[in-house]
Amino acid sequence: MKISTPVQIRFSDVDLGQHVHNAAYLHYFELGRMEFLRSLVEKDHDWRKLGLILARNEVDYRLPIHLADRISVETRCTKLGTKSFDLGYAVVSAGLDGSRRLHAEGHSVMVCFDYTSQRSIPVPEAWRTALARYLENDGTR
Predict the structure, then answer these.
(1) Quick check: is 115 in a domain?
(2) What is the DSSP string of 90-130?
(3) Which of 43, 62, 75, 97 has the most CB atoms in a 10 Å sphere around its CB?
(4) Is 98 a domain residue?
């Protein structure tokens, strides 16, 4: 199961090569990650006490993105550990013929963190339950 988030390409995302600069892809992943977390974490959660640390980001570039492209980022949970979970990303657009075009794939590791005690903690039970449901419903595994 994945969350799909539309992405507005900003003029400032485009470099002199007239395609989206490589660093913008991490911003797109962040947009997808935040939408994914909204589906996971209660609305009034205090991120200053119990939160996440982005421990790793990876990007594999497949096709350039141009200013006129209409893209979205698909985000899904790919692994659930004791204190962390992994998210996978796909930046996609629809071709003129309706086909799905993959522009980039990515992966990040999110570590659960208690900002009060300044240490990593086990994935909170409510999050673990929701993440496990995402993994169970993921037909790509």
Answers:
(1) yes
(2) EEEEE-TTS-EEEEEEEEEEEEEEETTTTEE-PPPHHHHHH
(3) 75
(4) yes
As for how many domains the chain has, the answer is 1
Q: What is the pLDDT of residues 13-64, one digit of tens each?
A: 999 999 999 999 999 999 999 999 998 888 888 888 899 999 999 999 999 9
Answer for the pair 75, 68: CB distance below 8 angstroms, yes or no.
no
141 lies in a domain? no
**Residue for token pair 């979205």:** 72
Structure tokens at 135: 């993994």
| Containing structural domain, residue 11 | 3-136
Tokens of 21: 């600069």
* Residue matched to tokens 């990040």: 108
